[in-house]
Write a structure and sequence with these properties.
Mean pLDDT: 93
Helix content: 40-55%
Distance between the termini: 52 Å
Number of strands: 10
CATH class of the largest domain: Alpha Beta
Strand order of the largest sheet: 1-2-10-7-8-9
Number of helices: 13
Largest sheet: 6 strands, mixed
Low-confidence stretches: 1-13
Shape: globular
Amino acid sequence: MVLWPDVPAQTKIVGMPTIGVDHIREAAARIKPYAHRTAVLTSRYFDDRLGAAVFFKCENLQKVGAFKFRGACNAVMSLSDDEASRGVVTHSSGNHAQAVALAARLRGIDATIVMHNNAPAVKRRAVEDYGARIVPVEPVEHVRVAVTNEIAQHSGAVIIHPYNDPRIIAGQGTAAMELIEEIAPLDVMLAPVGGGGLLSGTSIATAALCPQADTFGTEPKGADDACRSFHGGQICPSDHPNTIADGLLTSLGDLTFAVIRRHVRDIVTVSDESIIDAMRTVWMRMKIIIEPSAAVPVAALLGGKLAVKGKRVGVILSGGNVDLDRLPWVV
């Protein structure tokens, strides 16, 4: 199957699948019947504190509580009937697992999710509630990937990679596209980065639709592989990432790394302490629930990591899935 036709040369990355804003537009049309067009919120508190106009794209209000539904929905809905009849399989212990499970249910096809056996019970229940089959494995990344590949080989199921997939990247880029359509122009666009699917899609959309804006990635210091890779010029995976932002533990893929190097201005890191403070501040000031990963770009702003005074700033709040019995500011 040919995923992407040729697009203008400025969006091409040598040796990698072509991903352009046209694919993001196609993804937007494809997922429109299923995904929410999430709200864009503002806060006088943040504007006054930062001396900027800040616009928050609330993917915490997306289906499954995270932006991940956009990419998973685009990937599942773009399958041919023959591919869909064989079902899908992925590896994830978080929001992507729930997103693929729901997208598969909406398509009426089988989904198998390979999850770490120590994944939170609330996430396992959510995946099961969407009708997917869970295959538990030991919490080692290469084991999870190997089991996923084995299932695909024996069953014929289509693998939906959590981030290193052009269909996923295009789907994730629809959040930034909606934000730009609603409040452009922007001077700065911020997104958190783990595996890089969201930041890749965000940077492609911003470069095409709001070319005067700089896109920045934001990352926890305890899982700073993207920052090190970006500045080192090659992928430097994290061996033992350790951060409260558990949605950002994954290292970049070769496709997301290539896109990020082309379209992202810089990647900055923040401490877990600042992430917790930013998360609590958003809860208190904006009265919305965000998870630690979504608080990372907010922490970068509040910590003065970026010069935004007098600028128009877009922020992707990536998700809102929080264990309310284990809030990080409660001892």
